[in-house]
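New to this. Help decode the following:
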Amino acid sequence: MAAAFMIFGGAMAIFEGIAAITKDTVFLATRHYVFEFSLAGWGWIHLILGIVLVFAGCAVISGALWARFFGVSIAGLGAIANFLWLPYYPLWALVLIAINLLVIWALCTGMHREADAA
């Protein structure tokens, strides 16, 4: 379940990044925001995080233990990036925050179940 959500959330982040890089008109123009980057700068951040999240999801499918720890850290970075993205596209950012938190929960729960079985 965690790997599927990671791939889905990564694909959504990739689409978000591409839309921001092309300066789509669906994003809000904010002024005096503390974390004020250009729209293209935020697009590159989300594009790179999305690609890494898809890669980590594929690694979790393969069963690698390092992929779980890597996935937790990348999903955490994705949640933080989308929290900072809230003023630009609030609904999309909230959905991706929820998906990233669900990924973190699923990866950590899976680790506990494997430790209990051993």
Q: What stands out?
A: The chain is about 80% helix and 0% strand.
